[in-house]
Amino acid sequence: MSWLAFILLLMVVVLLRQPAISALFALAEECSFHWGTYRGTLRITRAIELLRPDRLMRRSLLQLRVHAHEALGDTARAVEMAWLLADEARAAGDWGLANTAINTFINAGLYREALDVERRWEHPEEDLAVELGPDEQRDLVQLNLCEALYNLGDWTAASERLRAVEETEADEPLLRHAILLQRGWILAHTGRGAEALAAMDQLDRRDLPRVYWSEVAFTRAAVLRVLQRYDEAEKSAREGLSLARRAASTRNGLFMLGQIALAAGRLEEAARHFEAGASHPYKGQGGGALLAWGDCLERLGQGARAQEAWRLALERDPQSAAAKKAASRLGRTDGQGEGSTGG
């Protein structure tokens, strides 16, 4: 190859490098948020690294990797990387990066750690979030932190935080429909089923990333369960399972079927669904369902197995309000000591 040809080739590589990075990154985002092909996301991000991206792109690649590992159920790896992402988010003043870290902590049952990301925020001048403005990204953080609060048992604080976000009168479709989703869940779990259903009726899942469509169906199922419309609730839960792309979504759907069957008084069916959910490879969160599984088994006269289920709630979701209830059922105080009876 002549020197001239080599120089021309080098120029082509340099000129095409940034467009190639941008195109590959767009493909990785489609894999994560539209198709739910998370292993593809990880392969593409590794390919982009070979092209020596700049620091801003490396942050975005880390964010995609955290999301992919969490969605695949590799919770330990996702949490390890989420700590790095939280540090990057604070350094850049990027609420979008922070939101991914917070969501990862919550899905791992690390609710206090999720809240600490916000508490430790230093409010730097520059905010590099681009797909949504900084205000919308901050509001998405607040919506996720509602989940941290109610998993800790503070439904009042979660409702107040949601109300503060609602008062911003969001124009961004994704944020507006995410608010409706969180509103439906909170209202259903605070005894306001009719209002919850009205909120869900306003929600258009097409304005949310496709990989979260299953959560819309599960939330609607939870609302219908509260309204004692069990057949419709089961149909919605099964629809959610058919839409599931994330490991957590499949597990959550199995648990939702158990909750519906339990509320309907079909105890043996409920126990089967709960056991299937508990046996799923995804182990994050789930304390409320594991607690309900134990209660179901106790009602079936299976006291020893009920205690095993309650212990799982303590082991897998130790920060949750459900874990405290499980400890009480096991005859413990603050999760310490051994009890011999359930209920």
Total helical elements: 17
Output mean pLDDT.
Answer: 89
What is the strand content?
under 5%
Strand/helix succession: HHHHHHHHHHHHHHHHH
CATH class of the domain at 18-128: Mainly Alpha
How many β-strands, per DSSP? Answer: 0
Q: Return residue spans where pLDDT drops below 50 for at least 5 consecutive residues.
A: 124-132, 332-343
Distance between the termini: 81 Å
Instruction: Describe the main β-sheet briefly.
Output: none
Q: Do you know the CATH architecture of the domain at 18-128?
A: Alpha Horseshoe
Which structural class fits the helix and strand makeup?
A: mainly alpha
Helical coverage, percent range: over 70%
Task: Spell out the blueprint of helices and strands.
Layout (H helix, E strand, L loop, with lengths): L2 H33 L2 H13 L4 H18 L2 H18 L2 H13 L3 H9 L14 H18 L3 H12 L6 H16 L4 H9 L11 H14 L3 H14 L3 H17 L3 H13 L7 H13 L3 H14 L4 H9 L14
Helix pairs in contact: 1-2, 1-3, 2-3, 3-4, 3-5, 4-5, 5-6, 5-7, 6-7, 7-8, 7-9, 8-9, 9-10, 9-11, 10-11, 11-12, 11-13, 12-13, 13-14, 13-15, 14-15, 15-16, 15-17, 16-17
Write a short abstract of this structure.
The chain has 343 residues and is mainly α. It is built from 17 helices and no strands. The protein is globular and about 85 Å long.
